[in-house]
Design brief:
The structure holds two protein chains of two kinds.
Chain A: H1 11-25, E1 30-31, H2 34-39, E2 56-58, H3 63-76, E3 80-83, E4 102-105, E5 112-116, E6 121-124, H4 130-139, E7 144-145, H5 156-161, E8 177-183, E9 189-191, E10 225-232, E11 234-235, E12 239-247, H6 252-265, E13 273-277, H7 280-283, H8 300-310, E14 315-323, H9 325-340, E15 348-353, E16 381-386, E17 389-390, H10 394-410, E18 417-421, E19 426-435, H11 439-459, H12 471-476, H13 480-496
Parallel strand pairs in A: 2-4, 3-4
Antiparallel strand pairs in A: 1-2, 5-6, 6-10, 7-11, 8-9, 8-10, 12-14, 12-15, 13-14, 13-18, 16-19, 17-19, 18-19
Helix pairs in contact in A: 1-3, 6-10, 10-11
Chain B: H1 3-15, H2 18-23, H3 29-46, H4 48-51, H5 56-65, H6 80-89, H7 104-120
Helix pairs in contact in B: 1-3, 1-7, 3-7, 6-7
The chains are: A alpha+beta, B mainly alpha.
């Protein structure tokens, strides 16, 4: 991957900046060969990887080194793109939004600074992966359970900062952040919440602090580099009941939403509930050519064949009840009563208990098994997620599902979707799988994604997260009062980062010097 | 000698190059054993989540090359240089590893571990 310089930076100035970085971290942690640059590209890009090409990477090992690098970046006007472990697959991986940006790789900062069992929290650095924390907890037999997303390879901190989630009671990961240490774009260091007291005893315990609460402005933003973070962990429950069920028709999704939403809002069910279409049963265990070799999206006859051979429904879901056995039994009764009005099916139920932990699924464990789906088409696979937030009302959800599916069909892409019932909203993760070496297919992927963003925005639905290439388009869809939110984001950006050195373009937020009208470069 | 340096030399030694033979006396039998163990241990940490039995990479390789070639640790055709190429540049659906996630000396140790069967079978590294 040949060098692409940051905008307005000469080769001599760039080399001088890298030499200055090396003075902080050591030469071996300034990575600037063609091969190094290639390792930070988005390997699952649906287009040209060079659209988001880094110029180099620098890897500090401490907060102090991060501060020093950020100060040097200001002095040399070098843009930095912080990554934790760079496994943001489907959203750009470790690649920067703007070509020429230097990756600030925090992967060496992987200390687990504290785990508090009775109060249920950990304080960790950004390089700590889900596997690392899981190994730490299990090796020490600490009865705290993690909440782990589908790709368990990534960073615990990075996932929480991108609003990742999982189907556990602590599954809204960003909501379980309780205090951060942040290097600001100036190089200054702050701790949020109660951590703003030098001798705080309650930093990981109380989220709000005194006065304005800042944690969430460092989520999905480019206002600071998070160098440590406190995250709440779930105490091991006495029992877990796992309930599974499948339903046979696409429109069964409607009554499922109507049944599950009040159970979530009232706290009978405490975790995001993923209702997943039939296709995932095939994408993770087989390739498309084993089922269908024709043109266009998979036809209805093949859908029914997959459902039959994989013994799955059109929609499939799992509910889990975590807690004391007496309470779980009462909740189970309420869930069964709610479902009885719509189906005669009974749940398949497995029971895990702390007293008998070898039976049934218990603590979540990291896995990368879902990544097998990338191989659906063969060749060099890739995936994107289109993820609008939809009101949890049957009519609206069904309309969204059918409209999305029609767009997939128009573009010849196999529809694959999960609707996560999260209480007062549904997050709809639509998976787009493709062969990166098929230009016709990747062109259709972009056509599909563009249409889905526009369709959803027209209905008043925005995405919770998106790929680098769509950050500007999605940000522009948040358009109340002439894009007032964009103006606020830019005002904050210019105040905190007047030189525009931190993650230009992240989530559509550009510094003044790189901004185009209406925040859409 | 640092543990990582010992690993580097041992890995090259396993590959059997003349240059490395000259370095052999610096490495005790215990260190050789440790180096082999390090390559294996590093494989477990960095590669095992996909390339142990039942893993995503094992599954994909089995589909593409046949089940007899699915498990990397059972292969007799892997060379250290090839392992390095795949790890740094990716292959099919496998992502690339940066030198922060997997430094060169650790990659060398893993390459040594995975190419041991190839070397034992008379192949070059």
């Amino acid at each position: 991957m040949s060098l692409v310089l940051p905008p307005g930076v000469t080769r001599a100035a760039f080399d001088a900046a890298l030499a200055a970085f090396a003075g902080v971290v050591g030469r071996q942690w300034v990575l600037a060969s063609d091969e190094d640059r290639e390792t930070y590209l988005d390997i699952y890009a649906a287009g040209d990887e060079a659209d988001h090409a880094p110029s180099a990477a620098v890897a500090p090992e401490s907060t102090e080194q991060v501060q020093a690098i950020v100060r040097l970046a200001n002095a040399h006007r070098i843009p930095l793109w912080p990554i934790s472990r760079g496994k943001n697959f489907g959203y750009g991986g470790s690649a920067p939004r703007m070509s020429g940006t230097v990756i600030l790789d925090l992967g060496r900062m992987k200390r687990i600074l504290e785990v508090n069992e009775p109060l249920g929290y950990c304080i960790i650095e950004p390089g700590v992966g889900f596997y690392d924390l899981h190994d730490y907890l299990t090796a020490r037999k600490i009865p705290l359970w993690m909440s782990i997303p589908g790709n368990g390879w990534g960073s615990v901190v990075g996932n929480a900062l991108e609003r990742g989630f999982a189907a556990t009671p602590y599954g809204d990961h960003t909501a379980n952040i309780c205090g951060m240490e942040v290097v600001l774009p100036s190089g200054d260091l702050v701790r949020t919440g109660m951590g703003a007291m030098a001798n705080s005893r309650a930093w990981p315990l109380f989220k709000h602090g005194f006065g304005p609460s800042w944690d969430q402005i460092f989520v999905q933003s480019n206002y600071g580099v998070v160098t440590r973070l406190a995250l709440w962990l779930m105490p091991q429950p006495e029992e877990v009941l796992t309930l599974t069920m499948s339903v046979p028709e696409p429109d069964d999704l409607g009554w499922l939403i109507d049944v599950l939403t009040p159970l979530r809002i009232r706290g009978v069910l405490e975790h995001p509930i993923g209702i997943t279409s039939y296709l995932s049963a095939a994408t993770t265990t087989s390739q498309r050519s084993e089922w269908y070799q024709g043109e266009g999206a998979i036809p209805e006859s093949v859908i029914r064949e997959i459902m039959s051979k994989r013994a799955v429904g059109w929609w499939n879901f799992t509910l889990r009840l975590y807690g004391h056995a007496e309470i779980n039994q009462a909740r189970l009764n309420v869930v069964r009563r709610a479902f009885a009005a719509h189906t005669r099916q009974q749940f398949q139920i497995t029971r895990w208990s702390a007293a008998n932990p070898t039976h049934g699924p218990g603590a979540p464990a990291p896995t990368v098994a879902p990544l097998q789906m990338i191989n659906w088409h063969g060749g060099r696979g890739g995936h994107l997620g289109f993820s609008p937030v939809v009101p949890p009302e049957a009519g609206r959800v069904l309309e969204q599902m059918h409209a999305t599916r029609r767009r997939y069909d128009e573009c010849g892409i196999d529809y694959s979707s999960t609707f996560y019932v999260c209480g007062r909203h549904v997050t709809n993760i639509n998976l787009i799988l493709y062969n990166r070496d098929d230009p016709h297919m990747t062109a259709n992927v972009h056509r599909l994604f563009d249409a889905l963003v526009k369709d959803s925005a027209a209905k008043g639905y925005g995405e919770y997260r998106t790929h680098l290439s769509y950050m500007d388009q999605v940000a522009a869809s948040f358009d109340f009062n002439g894009h007032a939110l964009q103006r606020l984001n830019e005002t904050v950006k210019d105040a905190l980062d007047p030189n525009g050195i931190l993650a230009p373009g992240k989530n559509g937020i550009w510094p003044r010097a790189l901004r185009k009208p209406t925040g859409s470069p | 000698m640092s543990r990582r340096a010992a690993v580097r030399i041992a890995v090259a030694t396993l590959a059997g190059s003349a240059l490395v033979v000259a370095l052999l006396p610096a490495l005790s039998a215990t260190e050789m054993q440790q180096a082999r163990a390090d390559g294996e241990a590093l494989f477990r940490v960095h590669c095992g989540i996909c390339h142990e039995p039942g893993g995503t990479g094992t599954f994909m390789l089995g589909r593409r090359l046949g089940v007899q070639h699915a498990l990397l640790e059972g292969r007799e055709d892997l060379k250290a240089a090839y392992i390095s190429q795949v790890v740094r540049h990716g292959l099919m659906s496998m992502p690339r590893f940066t030198r922060v996630e997997l430094p060169d000396d650790e990659l060398d140790a893993i390459g040594g571990h995975l190419s041991m069967r190839s070397t034992a079978a008379g192949g070059k590294p």
